[in-house]
C-alpha cells in the first residue's frame, strides 16, 4: 500500500510518498518525559513527529491570540494522537499517554 502524508509546517507543504511496511520498524522514538523508547515504522515516526510540530505551532498561535485552544492545529494534533490509539496502542501508551 502506498501512503501519501501531507502536513503543514511553517506554511510549507511537505509530501512523503512511501510504502507502508508494518513489520519494518526502523525508527526509534522516546517519551519526552520518561525516556522510554519504542520502535516505529517510517510512517508512524512521521505521524509522531507531526504531533509535536503541530503542538508547538498551535501553542504559539494560542499564545499570540491570548486564548488557549483557539488554534485549528489542535484538531490535527488530536487526529494524529487518535491514529496511534487505533493503530498502535502500545506506541500510544509508551510515547503519548
Notes on the protein architecture:
The chain has 97 residues and is α+β, with helices and mostly antiparallel strands. Helix content is 48%, strand content 25%. It contains three helices and four strands, in the order E-E-E-E-H-H-H. It has helices spanning 42-65, 73-87, 89-96; strands at 2-9, 12-19, 27-30, 37-40. The strands form two sheets. It has a two-stranded antiparallel sheet with strand order 1-2. Strands 3-4 form a two-stranded antiparallel sheet. The model is unreliable at 1-21 (pLDDT under 50).
Question: Quick recap of the structure?
Answer:
The chain is an alpha+beta fold. It contains three helices and four strands, in the order ββββααα.
Fold blueprint:
Layout: E1 2-9, E2 12-19, E3 27-30, E4 37-40, H1 42-65, H2 73-87, H3 89-96
Antiparallel strand pairs: 1-2, 3-4
Helix pairs in contact: 1-2, 2-3
